[in-house]
Amino acid sequence: MRLSKGQRKWFLGALVCVALAALAAILADTLLARLRPTLDLSAYCGEPTVSERGRTTLMETSGTLSVACVLPSESPAAAPVGQLLRKFAQVSREVAGATIELEYVDPREDAGTAARLMAQGANGPGLLFRQAGRRVFVPERDLLTAQGSVYDPVEAETAVTAALMRLSAEGVTVGWLTEGAAEGRPAYADTDPMDGFSGFRRALEREGIRIVPVSLQEAREIPESVSALLIMGPRHDLSAAERARLAEWLDRGGRLLYALPPAGDLGLSPLLEDWGIRVEATPRVPSRNGADGTGLADRLTDNHPITRELTEGGAQVAFVAPRALRMATTDHGAPAATPSTDATTTLRTGSVDHGSVTVTPLVSIDTLPTETLPDRVATVMMAAESGSGMGADLAFHRGRVVVVGESGFATNRFTLGHASANRDLAVNAVRWLVELPGSGASSGAGVLRVGQDSRAWRLDFAIAVLFVPMTLCLLLWLATRRHG
Q: Are 131 and 167 in contact (CB under 8 A)?
């Protein structure tokens, strides 16, 4: 049946509208793919909520603690923080946790009380937590966004939970390896938005972990107060004396987080092989990339404390160009196969004489195969623990080592956002090393993240640009025929 002239005009006009809609979808999809925006909806999701981590912290807290909210009435955090603290007090009663006593002080209206709280540790506007002579102060800036002008519900809930944990913790100190006088300021003080580690440092400090610089060049041995040592992609190889000092400390039950530099291994390959881990020399090229070009990994083991909660939440960890890790050769000289993230292997190694070493692959990533590197899946994070052959009832301090295929995974590029799986992964690694219970994973409730990998973007593109317009054209054609 032929269409009339008016029907043809109407149909062509409808096709033009569909084409314009498809063009708008293409532009919007391309823009979102490049910008990867984060839309925080937690401020509009009703009353404040306490994350599962916060509830667990309240269950493990006992006694009476007081929280003083010292904020001026015009502060953007004053009203919502008050609601959040009341929610914490309510949840504490529900889980039979500590008794929380709240106090609200406007320093401009009650200068006397504000002065008293300042003498007790309130260094300006913020929250002061007190229990049994211990004090923890959370400044106002930790309750706001990075720009410091808008209240951030997720950051505020995380800061309150961390303060409660710090009240009950005895205090843990970890060392950050520096490279002597030539290093200048330590890497954890670098605030560069891409390559600095200040976001990682802030996340650890929120867990109640104190960070101190450690130089193996200047010190004869690692201080006894240091529970674990962090080596985050240093630029210079360690000397033979430094390597021997580090190996001896690990044999005595030391703990190490070693994030590899882009090239080289600081001369630590023999030490790592003693712990059952071998490092490949060539970085891998991830095959699944996010819109910003970083590789995405969702192959996380579900049987280890470092990655268990992230696996349950379906988290994706981002890497740039990681180096692959393999099982080192066993004492029989046979090379171990590349493990999957579901495997845990116990090896008898060379110099570590505290029983066997249990090596667990934690994170694997899909990579592009090459002639020299044919494997399509590369393990980029492993954990090793000594003393597997020792009885659980023996007073033995097990040595622990976590190795990551690159140091960039914990830089500010990935750790400044409060919904960052990279930050949670790095914090969980340190918590496991120093034997802190639970997980350091933060709540991401109320945060809509537009950050799919390239395959997901292509699928969205096909739906938005092909399927939807074609469906509209079919409906228009059917409507036109029925009208005719």
A: yes
Higher pLDDT, 255 or 475: 255
Reading the block at residue 286, the tokens are: 């991830």
Which one-letter DSSP state was computed for residue 376?
S
Reduced to 3 states (helix: H, G, I; strand: E, B; else coil), residue 354 is coil
Cβ(157)–Cβ(87) under 8 Å? Answer: no
Q: At what angle do helices 78-94 and 153-168 cross, to 10 degrees?
A: 50
Rg of the chain taking only CA atoms, in angstroms? 27
Residue 72's pLDDT band, with cuts at 50, 70 and 90, is very high
* 321-348 pLDDT per residue, tens: 899 999 886 443 434 444 555 556 655 4
d(CA 361, CA 433): 15
Instruction: Go through 302-335 and write b for each residue having 16 or more CB atoms within 10 A of its CB, e for each that does not.
Output: eebbbbbbbbeeebbbbbbbbbbbbbbbeeeeee
116: tokens are 């008293």
Nearest to 290 by CA among 298, 282, 302: 298
User: What burial class does residue 84 get, using C-beta atoms within 10 Å of its C-beta: 0-12 exposed, 13-18 middle, 19+ buried?
Assistant: buried
Q: What is the rounded distance in angstroms from the CA atom of residue 435 to the CA atom of residue 428?
A: 10
Q: How far is CA 354 from CA 234, 295, 434, in A?
A: 29, 37, 18
Closest CA to 464 of 23, 12, 32: 23
Q: How much is the pTM?
A: 0.70
Among 24, 19, 59, 23, which Cα is nearest to 437's?
59
Whether 92 and 50 have beta carbons less than 8 Å apart is answered as: no
Of 204, 381, 377, 251, residue with least CA distance to 306: 381
8 Å CB contact between 217 and 239? yes
Q: How far is CA 122 from the centre of its chain?
A: 29
Cα-to-chain-centroid distance, residue 140 = 23
Query: Strand, coil or helix: what is 335?
Result: coil
**Helix (H, G, I), strand (E, B), or coil: what is residue 311?**
helix
Cβ atoms of 473 and 18 within 8 Å: the answer is yes
* 3-state SS, residue 59: helix
Tell me the per-residue pLDDT of 215-225, one tens digit each, with 9 for 90 and over.
887 666 788 88
- Cα separation, 34 vs 465, in Å, equals 18
